[in-house]
Write a structure and sequence with these properties.
The structure holds 2 protein chains of 2 kinds. By secondary structure, chain A is of the alpha/beta class. Chain A contains 18 helices and 16 strands. In chain A, strand 7, helix 14 (293-304) and strand 8 form a beta-alpha-beta unit. Chain B folds into 2 domains: 2-89, Elongation Factor Tu (Ef-tu), domain 3, CATH 2.40.30; 100-210, Nucleotide-binding domain of ferredoxin-NADP reductase (FNR) module (Rossmann fold). In chain B, the strands form 3 sheets. Chain B has a 7-stranded antiparallel beta sheet. The longest helix of chain B is centred in the C-terminal third of the chain and has 10 residues, at 190-199. Classes of the chains: A alpha/beta, B alpha/beta. Bound molecules: flavin-adenine dinucleotide and iron/sulfur cluster.
């Protein structure tokens, strides 16, 4: 329709705290669009007849639809449209890899200026949060069916929210003392304020979801015990088991798993020590091993805790870094030093058992491997030493084994991930569905939500058909 | 929220806490632990469960006052509620008919070893219990434990109760009384169970110790509690807390436990047992 409109290729930047300031505080880095910026950005959208962006979105938000509303300043309708398929827009607008999903599919990428869909999504969610009255969807009369959701990360929240919206009686179980999964214990405040996660949890509670924290399914009660009291059960326990490198010195003091480091900081509010009693160490020279979002979060947390030098040690080159580009740039701006094509081979301690140095090898890139990325190859004899006070290992997590180990008739894969049907989320066990990182291994928020969405559909179908 | 049913200092620096936690009380087995947070700002503290009442739905913990979080816990009042008691965590102790089982408890370990002693007795083992403390006024639960053992010895460092001495003296007690253990269990502070693992290795039987490294989540997520056992990295929260003390890398564990000593320094009290 707007064929004749002049192309506006000015992708509106989102205001951010300047690097030298944000490097030392825990407040959110990106400050969000103003109304003016949002409307300006939304007006750039061509409202394509066959919008490619929607196909790129794992939960198929009606992207041109909500963007049009923003352009027309009908923000209430914009958020309503988003929430039809995405119950966590404030989260997704902040942490989704839009650059490889919707934005990469936007037609305007050819001109180098795709619509900033994530920023607009975030804007709509923030607009709603700033309203006095938050709309709670009308909930149909109770169906009398009871569903248990195990794990309160994005997959669990999605299933709980979607099923509550259909009138089912949902109880969500969480092992930790706070709900939210990785959104609460992993992703730092400066990227995803905890206030937002709490808001989303409150929202599904208002829809009738009951939340039971401090409850480890498989320990406090097993799946087999719980299932007797429910008509269906969804497992979304995530990929919480940290990997280590299997090199000498990993148990030295000053060596952390990313999970430990981030949990101390986020869930246990280590930044607030001694008011909150869980300590987190301030180290001067910190190395983070790994190249994903988790590694970037650790590095940037270390900088904020006052480290003078923070390194990312990654065995491939910059092009292969799995972290979102935006986060890599943020880290660089905040002074994080990238030691690429480098592999730690030994952690060396001092006489008191504290980390002192990291011995590394240089790498070069060879032929592409199965993942399509070029395989890193060791350069023999290239060993070198980096003096270091702390090392955070952020090379990945595998699925949490507690439920696979304590549940009968539940088919699991090689990594003890739960096997679930891709189209329904159904597992091999009667009345049990699963989704999110526990099925796929560590992935993304939106994929976990996508899995939650299809599982909710399948569970609802099952509950409706069941006599 | 979990209701405090009973809180009492049973000996100097050691407190008994009973809370209502029916789900845990129903599932718990000897050797398992819970994680407790006494208020919203507290650390998550792993504590062995020393007793439970399935009918009443309560569990009992004996804890030592060492830092801010345990100080706050000690000042709880009956009828108050605490935000987190989660569990039962860890693998239950292996309870089989082994023959003669020597159970050694010191400090809070006198309490935490009680369910194990009882279970071994019920399985038909000949249970010998040895309680170790600095002084008579630090011993407790002797009467509670006694009915489940064929003999109960005490060792105090000042000789105020039982024999005079330390862990090493256990070897002598066993020899003197002609006791040949088929299995040894030790609960208590890290230093005590370390000493037990060293001194009693001459018997050539498994010395099962309940490890107590620093933990956060207790479900295998944070990896803080990693220990080296038999050359392999294990997580005390999910693979343990019981391990054969003869295979544990003690130096590493003792060092790891000291990681946050600086942060706690201005808060730590003299623990009363000389260990950590
Ligand atoms: C530091 C970090 C940064 C990340 N950054 C991004 C990003 O920028 N963008 C992005 O898209 N993705 C990111 N991810 C990945 C994303 O967070 C995960 O893919 C997503 O959270 C998975 O959701 P989930 O619901 O499957 O599991 P989780 O979020 O892991 O939630 C699982 C929940 O289940 C609970 N649980 C586990 N076992 C039990 C049990 N037995 N009983 C009861 N409860 C249990 C856990 O405590 C947890 O709360 C990041 C991950 C981390 C760790
Ligand atoms: S592809 Fe880009 S231009 Fe087209 S509708 Fe989607 S966001 Fe708008």
């Amino acid at each position: 329709m707007n064929q004749k409109k002049k192309l506006d290729l000015n992708r509106r930047e989102m205001p951010k705290q300047p690097p030298h300031i944000r490097r030392r505080n825990f407040k959110e880095v990106a400050m969000g669009y103003t109304v003016e910026l949002a409307v300006g950005e939304a007006e750039r959208c061509l409202q394509c007849k066959k919008p490619l962006c929607v196909q790129g979105c794992p939960v198929e938000i009606n992207i041109p639809g909500f963007i049009k509303c923003i352009a027309n300043k009908d923000f209430a309708e914009a958020i309503r449209i988003i929430k039809k398929t995405n119950c966590l827009p404030a989260v997704c607008g902040r942490v989704c890899p839009q650059e490889e999903q919707c934005e990469i599919s936007c037609i305007l990428i050819k001109k180098g200026a795709p619509i900033a869909i994530g920023r607009l999504e975030r804007f709509a969610a923030e607009w709603e949060a700033s309203q006095e009255h938050i709309e709670i969807p009308k909930i149909p009369p109770p169906t009398g069916k009871k569903v248990a959701v195990v794990g309160s990360g994005p997959a669990g929240i999605t299933v709980a929210g979607n099923l509550a919206m259909l009138g089912h009686d949902v109880t969500m179980y969480e092992a930790l003392h706070e709900a939210g999964g990785v959104l609460t214990y992993g992703i730092p405040e400066f990227r995803l304020p905890k206030k937002i996660v709490r808001r989303e949890i409150d929202y599904i509670k208002k829809m009738g979801v009951k939340l039971i924290t401090n409850f480890v399914v498989g320990k406090t009660k097993t799946v087999d015990q719980l299932i007797n009291n429910y008509d269906a059960l969804f497992i979304a326990t995530g990929a919480g088991l940290p990997w280590f490198m299997n090199i000498p010195g990993e148990n030295l003091n000053g060596v952390y798993s990313a999970n430990e480091y981030l949990t101390r900081m986020n869930l246990m509010k280590g930044f607030n020590f001694p008011k909150s009693s869980t300590p987190i160490k301030k180290h001067n020279r910190v190395a983070v091993v790994g190249g994903g979002n988790v590694a970037m979060d650790c590095a940037r947390t270390a900088a904020r805790l006052g480290a003078e030098e923070v390194y990312i040690i990654y065995r491939r080159s910059k092009k292969e870094l799995p972290a979102r580009l935006e986060e890599v740039e943020n880290a660089e701006e905040e002074g994080v030093i990238f030691k690429l094509l480098t592999l730690p081979i030994r952690l060396i301690g001092d006489e008191n058992g504290w980390l002192k140095e990291i011995e590394c090898l240089r790498m070069k890139l060879g032929e592409p491997d199965q993942s399509g990325r070029r395989r890193p190859i060791k350069i023999e004899g290239s060993e070198f030493i980096m003096p270091m006070d702390a090392c955070i290992i952020a090379i990945g997590n595998s699925p949490n084994p507690i439920i696979p180990n304590t549940t009968a008739d539940l088919e699991v894969g090689k990594w003890r991930n739960i096997i679930a049907d891709e189209k329904t989320g159904k597992t091999s066990k009667d009345k049990v569905w699963a989704g999110g990182d526990i099925v796929t291994g560590a992935a993304t928020v939106i994929l976990a939500m996508g899995a939650g969405r299809i599982a909710a559909l399948s569970i609802n179908e099952y509950l409706s058909g069941e006599k | 929220m979990f209701e405090v049913i009973e809180i009492e200092m049973i000996v100097p620096n050691l407190h008994l806490l009973t809370v209502r936690a029916p789900d845990i009380a129903e599932q718990i087995k000897p050797g398992q632990f819970v994680i407790v947070r006494s208020d919203e700002e507290s650390e998550r503290i792993p504590l062995s469960v020393a007793d439970w009442d399935r009918k009443e739905g309560t569990i009992t913990i004996i804890f030592m006052e060492v830092g801010v979080s345990t100080q706050k816990m000690a000042s709880l009042k009956q009828g108050e509620y605490i935000p987190t008691v989660v569990g039962p965590l860890g693998k239950p102790s292996e309870i089989e008919k082994f023959g003669t089982v020597v159970c050694i408890g010191g400090c809070y370990g006198i309490g935490s070893i009680f369910p194990t002693i009882k279970a071994f007795h019920e399985k038909g083992n000949n249970v010998i219990s040895i309680m170790e403390a600095r002084s008579l006024n630090l011993l407790y639960w002797k009467d509670k434990i006694k009915p489940f053992c064929s003999s109960l010895f005490t060792i105090t460092r000042d000789g105020s109760d039982g024999d005079i001495g330390h862990i090493k003296h256990i070897v002598e007690i066993l020899h003197k009384n002609g006791i040949k253990p088929d299995r040894i269990i030790a609960n208590g502070c890290t230093f005590m169970i370390y000493k037990a693992s060293k001194d009693l290795s001459i018997f050539n039987v498994p010395i099962i110790v309940s490890l107590n490294p620093i933990m956060i989540d207790g479900t295998g997520m944070c990896g803080v509690c990693r220990v080296t056992v038999d050359g392999k990295m294990r997580f005390a929260c999910v693979d343990g807390p019981d391990f054969d003390g003869r295979l544990v890398d003690w130096e590493e564990l003792l060092t790891r436990r000291k990681q946050y000593v600086d942060e706690e320094a201005f808060l730590v009290h003299n623990s009363g047992c000389g260990g950590i």
